[in-house]
Write a structure and sequence with these properties.
Elements lengths: L3 E6 L4 E6 L10 H15 L6 E6 L4 E3 L35 E5 L2 E3 L2 H5 L4 E5 L3 E3 L11 H7 L4 H9 L6 E2 H6 L5 E3 L4 H13 L3 H33 L3 H17 L1
Parallel strand pairs: 2-3, 3-5, 4-6, 5-7, 6-8, 7-10
Antiparallel strand pairs: 1-2, 8-9
């Protein structure tokens, strides 16, 4: 694999999955989407692994969502949409081994597909969470639905509706319950690995059954919400060309500051 790194420590039973496109702020292109799905599938069959840590390479970002240069062909019918990020999370691949996210730097937009399917989050002090969809004329559907299962409604609404103007700090994310542990900058992976080591030391069947039970508590509402997402996106998104114009204008403004 070229965009995802997997390291397994047989002694501890921990696997570390690393998003490895630091030059693109770990944005997910189609190759990374395929490799993430393949990684989760492989971990289902690896009995050495009892817990997983997910992180991003580099210091600037955990993940900044889908790569803007990724070309995703779409069916002509408004009733069908192809979203490559729907399969990037561990639960989408039926992996019921616990996954702890270690977040450093930016986590935004499509990163929530991953964070929404991790079991809990640990974050470094400089981590930030935001959702730029509305800024670029796009509906935040799947992202907001996943975050609404992890954060109070008002906090999700503020982050989603204010777009790229609103950055949720690591401290605030901890205060509202999105993040379960806050570390110093650069300490998230070590802390997440410490949690994973404790989990890996518990009886495997009990742990995996508990993960499945926790997910089942959210699954029905998530499934019903996701069923509406394609229609909301089709109705509310600006044309792709206009989205690109807004994106380019926004980044040109950043470069001139």
């Amino acid at each position: 694999m070229s965009t995802v790194r997997l390291a397994v420590d047989e002694d501890s039973g921990i696997a570390v999955v690393t998003l490895d496109r630091p030059e693109r702020l770990n944005a997910i292109d189609l190759e990374m989407a395929r490799e993430l799905s393949a990684t989760w599938q492989a971990l289902r069959f690896d009995d050495r692994v009892r817990a997983v840590v997910l992180n991003g390479s580099g210091e600037r970002a955990f993940c900044t969502g889908i790569d803007r240069d990724a070309v995703v062909p779409q069916p002509s019918s408004p009733y069908m949409q192809d979203d490559p990020l729907l399969d990037v999370g561990p639960k989408a691949s039926g992996l019921w081994k616990p996954v702890v996210a270690a977040v450093e730097g930016m986590a935004c937009g499509g990163a929530f597909y991953l964070l929404g399917e991790c079991d809990f989050l640990v974050a470094g002090a400089d981590a930030t969470f935001f959702d730029p969809h509305t800024t670029y004329g796009m509906v935040s559907a799947y992202e907001s639905m996943l975050m609404a299962q992890r954060m109070p409604y008002g906090e999700v609404a503020r982050m989603v509706l204010m777009g790229s103007a609103e950055r949720l700090s690591a401290r605030r994310a901890y205060e509202v319950g999105l993040v379960s542990e806050l570390t110093e900058r650069g300490g998230a992976v070590a802390a997440a690995t410490g949690c994973a080591a404790v989990i890996a030391g518990c009886p495997t069947e009990a742990v995996q059954g508990s993960v499945r039970a926790l997910w089942a508590a959210k699954e029905a509402a998530r499934t019903q919400a996701f069923a509406q997402a394609p229609h909301l996106i089709a109705l509310g998104n600006l044309p792709t060309e206009r989205q690109a114009e807004l994106f380019a204008a926004r980044h040109a403004d950043f470069r001139t500051r």
